[in-house]
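Sample 1 of the test manifest.
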Amino acid sequence: MGSDESEDAFDVRRSLEWPAAFAPIFDRHFDAVHHYLHRRAGADLADELAAETFLIAFEQRASFVARDGLGVRPWLYGIATNLLRRSWRVERRRLRAYGRTGVDPATVLDTEASVSRVDAARTGAQVAAALARLRAADRDVFLLVTLAGLSYSETAAVLDLAAGTVATRMRRARASLAKELAPTRLTTEALVDA
Amino acid sequence: MPDTELLDSFRADAALAREETRAGARARLLVSIAADDAPARRPGRRRGLVPRRQRRQMLVTVLAILCGLLALPSLGLGSRLVDLVRTGAHKPPTVNQELASSGHLGAPWNSKVIVSKTRRLLAVSSGHGRAVLWAAPTRKGGACYVVRSPRLNGGGCLGPEPFAHRLVPSLSGALGGRRSASIAGARWAMLVGHAGGNAARVELRYADGGRSVLPFAHGWFLFAVPSLHRTAGHQPIALVSVDARGRVLEQETRLFHPFASRH
C-alpha cells in the first residue's frame, strides 16, 4: 500500500478534531479499495461503493479510534465488504454469468480491460463459477484474505467474527474451490493453510 | 497452487479507478468533511447500512411528523406548539392573560406588555409544590412577571429604571399575624424579584450566619424560603446582589424588618 499504518491511524485520530485530516486517508487508500471492489463486483459498483466506503469511514472514524489495534487498511476493506453485502446478488449473478459465458460482465464495461487473453479468461471463468457457488459469508472471508491480503485476525476483526470462524470459513471455501476446480488447475497444495 | 496465485488470474486486468471516478469520490468526501462541524458520530451508527425496510419506516415516520405539524394550526394547536418552542415549556393561557392585564394597571410605564416575548424563567421546588416564574418586557423598557405555584399566584411590574438598575425584591408568604410579623414563624415564604445592573447572583443571608445563593436567570430570582429559615434565630436578614467579582452591589434589609424605620 505504500502507507505507514501509524501515519494512517494518526490522521484518523486527528480528524476527530480537524476533519480535513481525513483527506490523506482517501488519497492513500482509494485506489486499493476500488480495485478490490472492482475485482469482486465490477467497475460500476466499485465506483459507487468505493466512494461510499470513504464516506462511511469518515463518519465512523470515532469507532475506529475506539477499536485500538485495528489498522486503517483492514478497517476500510471491512467497510467495503459490508457494503458489498447489499449487492451480493449482483456479485453472484455476475460471477455465474462469467462462469457460464466466459465473458466477465464485471470488466466488460472497461474497454481497456476487455482485451481478451483466452487462457486467462477460461481460468477466470472457472474461478468465477466456483466463487459463485460459495456461501456469501465464506466468499467474503476468502476474498478478504486472498484479494485484499488481510490476515485471519484482521479479517476476524473487521467482520466482527471469532478467529476460529474465519479459519473455518477459509477451510470450507478452499475445500469447495478445490472440488470445483480440481479437474483443471487447483491442486491439493491450495488446501494447505497459508 | 496457493490461493493468491489462483486469484492472480481472476480479474487481474481489472483497471484502476478512472481519474474522474476518483475525483468524484474525493469531492463527495470533501463535502462531507466540510459539513462536519460536529463531533464524530458515536460508534455503532452505520450510515448506509440501515436495512431498506428500516429506512422506509424512518421515511414514513418523518413524513407523518411533517403532516402532523402542518395539521396543527387547523386543530388550534399551532400557537401552543410555538409557545413550547419559544419558552421551552407549555405556557398556561392564564399567564399571558395575567401579564397582558397587569400592563393596564398602575403606572404608565406598565402599559403594553409584549406578551409574545413571555419567557419561562425559573422553576423551583418548595415544600408546597413547584413554583414557576414567567416574565415579559413592556414596550417602555420595564417588565412584568407572574408566579404560579400552589401557594402563590400573583405578579407585578417593574418600571424601566428599577428594572435596569436596582435590586427589586418582593416577599410573599403566610406571615405571622402579630405586630412583629416576620418570616420567622411563617407557614411559607417566597422571594421573587429582579436584580438590575451587573448582578451575577443574589444571596439571602440569615440571622444564624448562613446564606443561600438564589436560583437566578436573566436577572430574575425566585426562592422558596426553607422551613429552617422560617424559624426564629435562622430567619433571613438581608438580600444581597453580588457582581461577577464577588462585590456587593446592593443590600436589602427592610424587607425582613417590616416595621423598622427607613433610613
